[in-house]
UniProtKB/TrEMBL annotation:
UniProt cross-references to InterPro entries, sorted A to Z: Homeodomain-like_sf, HTH_TetR, Tet_transcr_reg_TetR-rel_C_sf
Entries under Pfam families matching the protein: TetR_N
DNA bind region: 27-46
The protein's name in its UniProt record: TetR/AcrR family transcriptional regulator
GO molecular function: DNA binding
Residue span, HTH tetR-type domain: 4-64
Native organism: Labedella populi
Presence of the UniProt keyword Transit peptide in the record: no
Length: 186
């Protein structure tokens, strides 16, 4: 197995363990064991456990951004914005759902100077920027305000699903109301 393949395997296991159990709950020994490597090999691939976390978040960020609807497909802006929440519903309905990985890390670490918290912020800002671009395409005057509202709703819906075990279907009425209030045509 190449170093790149081993690194990918470490990140796959790290993402799963950190997301499901929390960063601090998973030690380096357990992480190495789950990936089927020694601690020495782990430290040859990553300088620290923090570096593993940041790399796992980066890999997850790419997947999260890839799940956003194509900005130039044949759907309307309204349909794309609703599709963001439909994708979240599917994700939150999986048995292994354990909340938003990024928010979980930021909440657990609580250090704005930590690289992983910065990565979490970057991911949420990517969602906000996407929504803002969609709102601008629809001619919304205060696109930043709508983007913030929908990002907060998106984050809250994931938290609600984690706490209750059920995605809040009422979120779709809230999304529609915010889109209507912003003047985005049906």
């Amino acid at each position: 197995m190449t170093a790149a393949e081993t690194r990918d395997r470490v990140l796959e296991h790290a993402t799963e363990l950190f997301h499901r159990e929390g960063y601090r709950a998973v030690g380096v020994d357990r992480l190495a064991s789950a990936a089927g490597i020694s601690k020495k090999t782990l430290y040859q691939l990553f300088r620290s456990k923090d570096d593993v976390l940041v790399a796992a978040l980066e890999a997850s960020r790419e997947m999260a951004v890839a799940d956003l609807p194509d900005e130039h497909d044949d759907r309307s802006v309204r349909q794309r914005l609703v599709a963001v929440f439909e994708a979240q519903l599917v994700y939150a309905s999986r048995p292994e759902f354990s909340g938003c990985f990024f928010v979980n890390v930021a909440t657990e670490l609580r250090d704005p100077a930590h690289a992983a918290v910065g990565m979490a912020h970057l991911q949420k800002s990517e969602l906000t920027k996407y929504v803002q671009r969609q709102a601008e395409m629809a001619g919304v005057e205060d696109s930043a305000f709508l983007a913030e509202q929908l990002t907060v709703l998106h984050t809250g819906a994931a938290d609600y699903a984690l706490l209750t075990g059920s995605y809040p279907l009422s979120v779709f009425a809230a999304v529609e109301a915010l889109i209507d209030a912003a003047g985005i045509a049906k």
